[in-house]
Amino acid sequence: MSGTGDLVDMAYDALEGCEDLLAYHERHGTASLLILTQFNPRVATESARMICDQYHLTQKTNVVEIGAGVGFLAIELAKRCRSVIAIESDPAWSWIFTRSLYRHKPPNLTWIFGTAESMVGTIMADAAVIFTRSGVKEMRALGEAFAPLVIMPLHEGGDEQGDFHPASPLAER
């Protein structure tokens, strides 16, 4: 996914202090820290591998990723799972994903631009994956509306950089 790092840097530069961004989130009742946890394909590949290994996600697993950002993790999860529905409410990231999806989007990945809240009751999955640092309790509750297994690696034995460890108590599920 060459050039995506440059695109992410451009997005950060363009959005810093952007009044339209703030107005958008206020208008839609969404929050964004504008921090990508899956900021490059290499990190996403390793995260997907660890998630799938730790939580036993396979080609039979349907996944919803809430807060999919630029889609790096969704693409990697789709390579390992039956289907992935990626939901992202922040338009800041959608144009970066659009650029990389032409080259890398697998057919079993569906991208939804909108709020996860608006999709409650219409999507059910085996697992909800949420890499976030914002609204942790609310995001967990939201994930539970989509799937019986909610995976939040940054808050299950993980550290601030997004590393998580197989010793997580959820590994026994």
Q: How do the helices and strands line up, and which of them pair or pack?
A:
Elements: H1 4-15, H2 19-28, H3 41-55, E1 62-66, H4 72-78, E2 83-88, H5 91-104, E3 109-113, E4 127-129, H6 136-144, E5 149-151
Helix pairs in contact: 1-5, 3-4
Q: Would you kindly provide a written description of the structure presented here, covering whatever features stand out?
A:
The protein has helices at residues 4-15, 19-28, 41-55, 72-78, 91-104, 136-144; strands at residues 62-66, 83-88, 109-113, 127-129, 149-151. Helix content is 39%, strand content 13%. α6 links the parallel β4 and β5. Residues 157-173 have low confidence and may be disordered. It is α/β, with parallel strands linked by helices and 173 residues long.
